[in-house]
Specification:
The protein is built from 7 helices and 9 strands; from the N terminus they run H-E-H-E-H-E-H-E-H-E-H-E-E-E-E-H. It is of the alpha/beta class. The longest helix has 13 residues.
Length: 181
């Protein structure tokens, strides 16, 4: 057996999640199953909901560290039937969307706490976005900020700044800049 292959088999990568709680809210049972299974295998504790109303109820009743929310169910999130929770206690949101529905999603995105991935889902991208959104909630995991000259990227908030001036980047632009650095 190849030595590199045997090293991979002997040393499994540590789970990402460390037991953090993630709520998956998706109306497509296939997406829900794919995401919940993948996130559980990555070390997260996962709850699911099939409707926006059910997702809001779960968020109200249980503490979650992150919510992965299908943008199709976005109307339930912007007009909640329940009183909204305090902003500090709300989990970050990762939206699932198709490219043709991004125009509905853009006003909902805010820096750092909300992000999106497009369908069809790429699991590696979903896991990377989940990790970035949860990084600030994991004590002791904050690494040195990526930088080049006076350009500094903060993965915890998905913000870039040049010196003291913040740069207004979309999530896709931020990821591209991060990849280039």
């Amino acid at each position: 057996m190849n030595a590199n292959l045997s090293n991979l088999l002997e040393k499994p990568s540590p789970p990402r999640g460390g037991g953090q709680r993630v709520l998956v809210v998706a109306d497509d049972p296939g997406d829900s199953e794919l995401l919940s299974t993948t996130l559980e295998l990555a070390g997260y504790r996962v709850g699911t909901a099939g409707t926006g109303a059910e997702g809001l109820t779960r968020l109200t009743e249980h503490p979650f560290d992150l919510a992965v929310w299908d943008a199709v169910l976005l109307s339930h999130l912007t007009h909640p039937p329940h009183p909204p929770r305090a902003a500090a206690s709300r989990p970050p949101l990762l939206f699932l969307t198709t490219c043709d529905s991004l125009h509905r999603l853009v006003p909902e995105l805010g820096p750092g706490e909300k992000d999106y991935v497009t369908k069809p889902l790429r699991i590696a991208e979903v896991l990377a976005r989940v990790d970035v959104l949860l990084r600030r909630r994991r004590p002791g995991r904050q690494a040195a900020l990526p930088r080049y000259g006076d350009l500094v990227l903060d993965d915890a908030t998905c913000q870039a700044r040049r010196g003291a001036r913040p740069l207004d980047l979309t999530p896709a632009e931020y990821r591209l800049l991060r990849h280039l650095l």
